[in-house]
Design brief:
The chain is rod-shaped. Helix content is 74%, strand content 0%. By secondary structure, it is mainly alpha-helical. The chain folds into 2 domains: 1-40, no CATH class; 42-76, no CATH class. It is built from 4 helices and no strands.
């Protein structure tokens, strides 16, 4: 058999096995999601920052609900 005619087992499975195809597709989706998450900067919250935000909300009279909604919008 010539080297160019060789087929790898993975290629054969991708062509013939539906379960293997499904798992390969799922793996690709997870890999893309992992790359997306690894490119996202980390959100670091310090105790000092939380206390400052609490103090600012209290002093400015901002409702707790508005602050929570703001955090939810920023997290997406």
């Amino acid at each position: 058999m010539a080297a160019s005619a060789q087929r790898y087992p993975r290629d054969i499975l991708l062509e013939t096995d539906a379960e293997y195809q499904r798992l390969a597709e799922q793996h690709s989706k997870y890999e893309a999601e992992l790359l997306k998450l690894s490119a996202t900067p980390y959100l670091v919250i310090t105790v000092r920052g939380l206390l400052r935000a609490k103090r600012e909300r209290h002093c400015c009279g901002i409702a707790e609900v508005a602050f929570v909604n703001c955090e939810v919008l920023n997290s997406t």
